[in-house]
Amino acid sequence: MSAYIFEFIGTMMLILIGNGIVANLVLKGTKGSDVGWTGISLAWGIAVFIGVFISADVSGAHLNPAVTIGLATAGKFSWALAPGYFLAQILGAMMGNLLIWLAYKKQYDATEDQGALLATFSTGPAIRSPFWNMISEAIGTFALVFGVFYIAGGSLGEETIKLGALDALPVALLVMGIGFGLGGPTGYAINPARDFGPRLLHAILPLKGKGSSDWSYAWVPIVGPIIGAFAAAGIFLLLGS
């Protein structure tokens, strides 16, 4: 149970800081409207560092169903624990975005742009092409999960992989690099819980003039990361690391 609680807390902190920078950028009446893509990529790296640092010693700091799937596929994590991790990650992501909504309540009330409102919860493509958007998400997630294997001391002789405090910074830098290098096509969800949980919250919250939650796109940041996770685990096993 402690592992599930810390997955919840770690994911909550990840989303609170990560999507918080998006809210600061796109909502009307904030003081951070000039942070730009550089600010977003840097903030998501910091968000990962905080989430991993808090939860690593107890839960292993997956904070992402794709990471859980990749580790379980490679035999580094028990599949029996995976459903509980998925639930904790989704609920943690929802709580993180709920806190953002509370922190920026007056800015949400002042914002009429439906696209901007949705962007503070979930990702969307720069050019809408679901298949290619899925490919972008798969590649970004492959880079994340494959990197995690080696940052965390990926040896097939080890029974489990956990991201200790020292490894929080390399993972944060990895996510930052993915944002700078691969984030442009889709906003780099690379995490099904990061997108699905907040998108569900967007559908539930009484946001004035919020418009659609764009459920027709929601499968992309779920399927793409899962494919990327399986591919990373498969190549890791193939290399016999």
Description:
- By secondary structure, the chain is an all-alpha fold.
- The protein has a single domain (2-239), classed as Glycerol uptake facilitator protein (Up-down Bundle), CATH 1.20.1080.10.
- The protein is 68% helix and 0% strand.
- Helix 7 runs antiparallel to helix 8.
- The longest helix has 25 residues, at 2-26.
- The two termini are 31 Å apart.
Low-pLDDT segments: 155-160
The biggest beta sheet reads: none
Mean pLDDT: 92
The CATH fourth-level homologous superfamily: Glycerol uptake facilitator protein
Secondary-structure element string:
HHHHHHHHHH
Structural domain count: 1
**Separation of termini?**
31 Å
Name the beta content range: under 5%
Question: Briefly, what is this?
Answer:
68% of the residues lie in helices and 0% in strands. About 2% of the residues have low confidence. The protein has 241 residues and is mainly alpha-helical.
